[in-house]
Amino acid sequence: MIKGQPGTQGEVDLAALLQLVASGDRNALAELYSRTSAQLLGIVVRMLQRRDAAEEVLHDAFLRIWHSAPSFSVARGTPMSWMTAIVRNVALDRLRRQKREVALEDLPGYDEQADESPSPFQQMAASIEGRALARCLGELEAEQRGCLLLAYYHGLSHDELAQRLQRPLGTVKSWIRRSLVRLRQCLEP
After folding, report:
1. What is the extent of the structural domain holding 76?
2. Exposed, middle or buried: residue 151 (CB in 10 Å: 0-12, 13-18, 19+)?
3. What is the DSSP letter of 110?
4. 0.85 cut: is pTM over it?
5. pLDDT tens for residues 28-57?
6. Together in a domain, 99 and 140
7. Quick one: 6 and 98 in the same domain?
8. Which residues are CB-neighbours of 135 under 8 A, at least 6 positions away?
9. d(C-alpha 146, C-alpha 124), whole Å
10. Contact of 46 with 58, CB cutoff 8 Å
11. Each residue of 63-103: pLDDT tens digit?
12. Which of 53, 70, 144, 170 is a plausible cystine mate for 22, CB 3.0–4.6 Å?
């Protein structure tokens, strides 16, 4: 079964773990971390472009998950989508705080230290879920797909997207909402 798709045993297990986390079970939090951290880290690394910062963000996000677990509801979404939203929001907060910092890529000698191993995003794309997501993303219109990727992989806010794409804010919000609905429909079993 695919971990991450609604209705799978993996999602049921994650929901049960979140209930245990909500009751203060640290072992459940450790298990939740071990099952989801690689996928969540991949999202953050893609957004921040720095593994060290992404690891800090992931740590902060899991603290937020620990404190917010009692508010999780299966009726409102899957455990993985709930945790992804938390991780993404923590990453966006970090991006907004560091707007004035120099990017790692701009430092002299950065390319000499580049890691040749596949990025977390490349690893995810090779996975079953990643291939399914790539297939579903390919079904979206190019402009809407680009908008969605800029929002979720590069961390741009709605306002930043509207400015960058030179589109009205309402249009950008509609594209993202409709694209997410189409992706959800495409990924449902």
Report:
1. 1-114
2. buried
3. T
4. no
5. 999 999 999 999 999 999 888 888 889 999
6. no
7. yes
8. 186
9. 19
10. no
11. 999 999 999 988 888 899 999 999 999 999 888 877 655 55
12. 70
